[in-house]
Amino acid sequence: MSAELAISCSAVVKVYEADKGVVQALRGIDLAARPGTVTAVAGPSGSGKSTLLRLLAAIDSPTAGDVVIGGLQIAGASARVRRAIRRRHIGYVQQRPSDNLFADMPIGEQLRLVARHKGAARSEVDRLAEGLDIADRLGHDPRELSGGEQQRAALARAALGRPSVIIADEPTAELDLVTTRAVCSVLGSLARDRSVAIVVATHDVEVMGAADHVLFLRDGAVQSETFEGRELAVVDSTGRIQLPPEVLSWYPGRRVALEFDPETSTIVIKPT
Ligand code: ADP
User: What is the DSSP string of 72-134?
Assistant: First the structure.
């Protein structure tokens, strides 16, 4: 199955050694994304989204578990190997539009430079610009573009060289609703046309709506996943299920009685 996946991670744990002590930022995350799909990673601030994206982009290594990108393992890989994997397989889009592009160079020129650097044909730039609806903006510097146009240009830049995965860290966080929608409207078609897996961290319901698959993180674990419109709780590899915060008050003693019905594989959780 993994041969069909653009990117996956299994039982990923990330621990930071900070001045204040040890922070367990991720506590066993599983994720699998096929080419041609959009995955949104959602969750409140501090839930581990950026940490997960840094691992998926091979910027950092997991403390335990593994990330596999284009069939290559990240755990145990040296910084040099991770850099090579990143260059070959990852396109990255940052949150702030101005961090993704040079300020004083027309977008088209920038994209052609990147295409040359990545060994992509010039025609790729035109094809991407057409698909991302920025073809008539190529002669303009970034400051003459809206935030949404800049982020679509950043997606074009990230897609050059045919990476397996495009990672985008809250790419619409600084955009208004109209420009956010313009970015969301191209995510799915970009993923499908280029057979690339797009993984995007977000707080934005518009982005979640544009995704095939949404993972909700809380406290470094996957609390639930939305797949084909259904929200599913996740049973991790150690058997843990994370309950939504709104039902925690049902169990004030934090001890519950479980009733199993093997006939229907049903578990009932009762307060004690
Ligand atoms: P999010 O992107 O969802 O806001 P982060 O991945 O940035 O979450 O952070 C997850 C947890 O890890 C938080 O408790 C944060 O304070 C901690 N953290 C993130 N980066 C570091 C770091 N470099 N050193 C220590 N702790 C970190």
Answer: EE-TT--HHHHHHHHHHHEEEE-SSHHHHS-TTS-HHHHHHHHHHHHT--HHHHHHHHHHTT-
